[in-house]
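Write out this protein's structure.
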Amino acid sequence: MSLPEERDVVIVGGGPAGLAAARRLATAGLSVTVVDEQPELGGQYFRRPAPEVARVWGDHRPEGRRLIDAVRAAGVECRTGHLVWGVDDDGRTLLVSDPAERPVRLRGRYLIVATGAYERPFPFPGWQLPGVTTPGFAQHLAAADHTPVGERVVLAGSGPFLLPVACSLLALGVTVAGIAEAGRPYRPSLRALGAVRHPARLRELAGYAARLARARVPIWQDTVVVRADGRDRVTSVTLAAATAPTRPVRTVAVDALCVGYGFRPQADLARMLGCAVRTDPATGDATPVLTASGRSSRADVYVIGEAAGIGGAPTAAVRGLSAALDILGREGHRPRPGELRGLAAEGRRLERFKSLTDALYPTPADLAGLLRPALPDAATLCRCEAITAGEVRRTAGTAAGDVNATKAWTRAGMGPCQGRECGFAVSAVARTSADVFPSRLPVRPVAVATLLEMAGEGGPA
């Protein structure tokens, strides 16, 4: 069996958090490897367009290219196209598949998990139709490929992310027929006045609002999707008031529908590494128990960025730097003058803005209460296993409010996505307090050829 490759620090995830940590650690002289499954670094936020698109349109966020260049210049080993799919029996060695699907083992004296987040969908009749997707996928197509998800689109769900996605689609010439926001964040209120303490974010919001106003894009607040219709592709979407989801208020003709209710931390790998987690009372998500610097219950493992809790790219970068400085302190390095103080101040400012945003939009628990009554028994809840909402509802008494018992009785969440797509909805329909499905090997789908080659080496299979 091949021996693991050793580094001072191995970072899983090359988004804003992982890149910020890698640059600071490598600048201080530590050997650092960043592993990312995508062909290029940057994560979703700094995702670069395809080369042929970039030549014509330029980078979506040029600061991302500058950061990636700085990381490489600092001497960080960047292993793109490498999928981390598990942890070896020693609990320290990462099991990785390289671009040729060959097995690789990596071990660091410190491990940093910066695996990001995934979107929070909620099913409705017709959500399997072609043309129905998430806002994140629409943004990815627009930013990376300069490709519109459709010609006439409705965006729906909840959260501030819907606004920049709408603006990205408008820039491609798409007709945005409307934005359906489940909450009421854009109505004047004393709580919303707190935004004046964050002028940069307020200017950003004003820019989105002005662009949408010029295009005459309506924003329907207190509104949710209750069904999508079409044969070979979605052709219409039916909307209802969030407070009365069984009574439709309008039907809109579309050829694409993008629905998402925010984001969830991708903490599967941290859980597999044995890091303690807790159920976030505000979201129901499994989030790692961390110190202010991102250190987990395992002294050698840090969790940063969105995997530590949803906060946005600026917060992710601060978390990355905080973890790097904590590691450097343990290695005997002194921080730069004022570095710790400035980072702490920035973290507090960003945390205040996050608290404001969280207060303006409905919580996942609120969303579950709003969306659950409108979901008919016949609607598919778990697409991987073709489990309906009715099947999950019928097990509620037997499962006694335990999401894992619900999974065992129905198989919901046992497919390739391991509950990433349906976990929130299964929890909501089964009326459980959390959607924490167990993390199991492999945490991401891996080629059988990789497993066979690893088994031939005497590794886990």
